[in-house]
Amino acid sequence: MQWTKVLGLGLGAAALLGLGIILGHFAIPKKANSPAPQDLDLEILETVMGQLDANRIRENLRELSREPHLASSPRDEDLVQLLLQRWKDPESGLDSAGASTYEVLLSFPSQEQPNVVDIVGPTGGIIHSCHRTEENVTGEQGGPDVVQPYAAYAPSGTPQAVNAAKHGVAGVLVYTDPADINDGLSSPDETFPNSWYLPPSGVERGSYYEYFGDPLTPYLPAVPSSFRVDLANVSGFPPIPTQPIGFQDARDLLCNLNGTLAPATWQGALGCHYRLGPGFRPDGDFPADSQVNVSVYNRLELRNSSNVLGIIRGAVEPDRYVLYGNHRDSWVHGAVDPSSGTAVLLELSRVLGTLLKKGTWRPRRSIVFASWGAEEFGLIGSTEFTEEFFNKLQERTVAYINVDISVFANATLRVQGTPPVQTVVFSATKEIRSPGPGDLSIYDNWIRYFNRSSPVYGLVPSLGSLGAGSDYAPFIHFLGISSMDIAYTYDRSKTSARIYPTYHTAFDTFDYVDKFLDPGFSSHQAVARTAGSVILRLSDSFFLPLKVSDYSETLRSFLQAAQQDLGALLEQHSISLGPLVNAVEKFEAEAAALGQRISTLQKGSPDPLQVRMLNDQLMLLERTFLNPRAFPEERYYSHVLWAPRTGSVVTFPGLSNACSRARDTASGSEAWAEVQRQLSIVVTALEGAAATLRPVADL
Amino acid sequence: MQWTKVLGLGLGAAALLGLGIILGHFAIPKKANSPAPQDLDLEILETVMGQLDANRIRENLRELSREPHLASSPRDEDLVQLLLQRWKDPESGLDSAGASTYEVLLSFPSQEQPNVVDIVGPTGGIIHSCHRTEENVTGEQGGPDVVQPYAAYAPSGTPQAVNAAKHGVAGVLVYTDPADINDGLSSPDETFPNSWYLPPSGVERGSYYEYFGDPLTPYLPAVPSSFRVDLANVSGFPPIPTQPIGFQDARDLLCNLNGTLAPATWQGALGCHYRLGPGFRPDGDFPADSQVNVSVYNRLELRNSSNVLGIIRGAVEPDRYVLYGNHRDSWVHGAVDPSSGTAVLLELSRVLGTLLKKGTWRPRRSIVFASWGAEEFGLIGSTEFTEEFFNKLQERTVAYINVDISVFANATLRVQGTPPVQTVVFSATKEIRSPGPGDLSIYDNWIRYFNRSSPVYGLVPSLGSLGAGSDYAPFIHFLGISSMDIAYTYDRSKTSARIYPTYHTAFDTFDYVDKFLDPGFSSHQAVARTAGSVILRLSDSFFLPLKVSDYSETLRSFLQAAQQDLGALLEQHSISLGPLVNAVEKFEAEAAALGQRISTLQKGSPDPLQVRMLNDQLMLLERTFLNPRAFPEERYYSHVLWAPRTGSVVTFPGLSNACSRARDTASGSEAWAEVQRQLSIVVTALEGAAATLRPVADL
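Output (structure tokens, whole complex):
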């Protein structure tokens, strides 16, 4: 070989090696240093959907509803242990689980001295007594743990009258009319266990407390050391003795009443003309001058009630929480309310826990499972939790998902929620098959029952708005966290029942669900899949699937209602809606622009920190609608879009209510000043919301 | 060439290229994909420190204080334009700048009908008049833009009396005694322009409004459309006519008073014995039955007042804001108050802006410069800003740095702030040379004047706590943002002046600063460097230099004060401090553990997202001490550790105040219930704070 050649080869080799190094360094992306960011994994999603098992939900429900589990009862405590055991299971449990206990004020009937409703004859003798318990129809209504029907927090007392004290009502009897709950049916052979309808002896229990949360510790967690309001200063309890009765007892009272006929809208299906009293009919079952004696012996008691929390730690953003919860306590067996939800909760935690323990999956963000205590008494467990961890939850929670009663009936999905959750629910339900005949998705089935015409999307399923009917209330109203409540529900063409007929009675049992509400548990499974898909999408998606621009439709419709129904009135009082128009338009523009920026970013390969910043804007948007000083008379309600609306115009609640008050009373300038103040509160909130959606370095 | 050779060479070449590719890909770290995270750059820091120029600060001050610039005056508007021009300068400006205007209620004396204080003889004739203006000592006290001395928001009226109406004070005269402001000196040759002391005609103006923010729009931004409280319903204005006068006029009145001798602590340096009245001395300058007539003609006016904001966009975390501000409006020329701060602000923005425009530097986080309007009337501009952007600022602001009066005197640094900012101020000041003789750092000089013995650090400079004396108030008290106020100040062994003597008078001029307060402007430069270093550290450090564990010392000292000074009393009323002890201990433990985790992480090469999560815990800690329902009677104050304390025990203010009220009045159980409630509010806040410091996936 010649030197020149060797040199030539050597130089060539060096050049090739160098070229290779250069190519290797610059031309091949380095996987190890910049892995694709963890995102929603459709395979995992499909696995979860496939593993959610209807029969396991059924078995969960059987166990959960085996015994009555009134808040703070021994069986309620047993279920705390059951949840802990499931969530600490080495093969299907979560990363951690624990119970936290609050000392809260509950209300119970006296066991020694039952509440009674009697008809007392002219000579003072009892001539008729209402039933003190429900009829033991299936063997489950007679146990010692079935709490006597009562109105929780109604005060004790023994008023006696027959609708006579026109201007000084001394006591209240409450019943559910077969027209409202049973589609008019009332005979034993037409009701449970022969159908899903309420038996004549069924009595709906409930809390009669006006607010929510522990009555003694408003805005403070009910830990033992917390300050407690003196009982004499508690507001929100009913002022007079109150007792619920079944419709068979109501018939005995109501169908014997004398006096003028009640208005048509007051008539029901008890098979007689309802009259207003006073006194009994002379030709009826009781002497005309008989009286009704109501004796209520309810007692307030400080009791320990627990929440159970279970956590799956997020792999990438553990400080972002997807919260999913339901209450645990029931009035009696509570198969539907709340165990149908808890049965789903347990199946979801099992499936996710199993993937977790196998090492197959860990979500991007943390998932928190919650089993709340004492919801039936006024959302107590969830409210105390939000009071205890107010700041932390407000700073970190992506969304709260509530599944309380998971199945009211088998016809369709029903979702209540704030606008930013609409899209994720749509995405989830489009991919899940609907139970029942046909090959529809849950979405396609849903849209047949609840729909609306959206100016943006065309015909879409319609979400309901969130009131305060379950544990989502403190999350949305007090903390401003985007929330939703998911269930399967009725075909309204088939029943007009206000709610499933055995609601809050001793007939809400496993067999009731198994035979009438959801035989085969396919609706339970549909709810589990919907909730599961929503939870996975919220916890695993790189970009948070919260579409804040969907608030624009709500704002626009509130604005239009204000303009159409209040505009002229406001103008008379020199109040302009102009600033509100501007604020809504600004929100719409900023939300749309943010949507554009997200789309653009999604096409590239954005930095995780960049996406985190955008996600924070999405997550925190709901918080910007909070104003803790907006409604000083409303406890916990701070959300200026979803606070209770007493005014008839479906618009911003503060505005609607203030207008209604100013118009209804012959009120002076102060009432109109309050209208102006409420308008400014909304405008400030909307302007603030728009400001948080702007590019973050624009002030 | 033979085929085998060619093949051999070809294979060899391929192998070399391949080896090169492999080496290039695996052996050389890929800079572009995983750059070291942007962190504080000590070279940039040194450059900034070096470029902050004393003479430029001096020139800024000359321009800023050239004319009186009372809030909303034409000159105030000129300065808005000056700021905008500087911040939009193509070579030394910021990324963006803009002014935002609020319509706010200010108070001015009438130009047509000046406020007067006269002595009226027995026959009704005026026998003596107080000066209506300050003496034109330097040619700057006589211009048309020098506002007549007045008490802003004091109502109009013309009361007449001589301290006679014992139980019905009709008007108030206010003056500053030479004992309090002039170290006892009062003759013209001992005062400005011959010294820094206040001339005899000097009058301190000020706002007499009790709260802060625009009086007509509490909790709402004072944009034109916002709801305004009816004037008749505004609370917080002084109830009776009030007028400030100079001490030469005060001498005429006070030294001629009759009656018993005033208490020793009321005596001053006017050269006579102060008496309490009623009436004048028979042997004095005025007939004994003369009267003092006070005529106040102040007018409330809605005026436009602007904030100016300038932004440097963060390179990595633009949604994290380091806010740095000062007010712009003065009472007269306001060379010290506030222009000494604004002169520093402009120099800092110039130096940082220049680096930015050169492309040398861009901070990790955004820096926001603010020039607030109408501070002198009650922190109005800053308060309206926090009302307008409440949520956005609360979610994103790392800290607020205030430099109002930057130099009171030349002796030492003085910092007020919340505990988490202590460390960053210490770090900054240890690296900056102190002005004046010797080779001390600002830190080493500071510790000689203000120090305390810390159980953790030993002897350290002591930070003061933040009251409501400048624009930091809404940031710390209303938004819960870690805040600080930075200035250079007195050697207290050399003067006992309550504040620099020409405060809020027409003698607070450029020459006053240039000759007496800070000749050479080295103290201004020291403040600029301190603020600059703090801003750079907060905006550029990868790990936020907010040391939350420094709150432990405060909590521990508040707890000890509660135990020592209130413990026995509380025990008598069956109120236990046990839960507070537990909460403080829990906070201490969690803060220490978080500190440990940060240390560990700092030793590795943590992921930016991981650090962001930790930083969020640090940034948001201060927020967890807010409770908007804690002090319903205190406007804006929500911080349970720093709300105003009226009780004498230096502990948690709500507890201190409630105890003080319960003890002072012969109060019943309700006052003690309020003590218990305040205790629970603090315990809940501390437990919540500890919870936010825990590892984020632990609930």
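The domain at 548-693 of chain A is CATH 1.20.930.40 (Transcription Elongation Factor S-II; Chain A).
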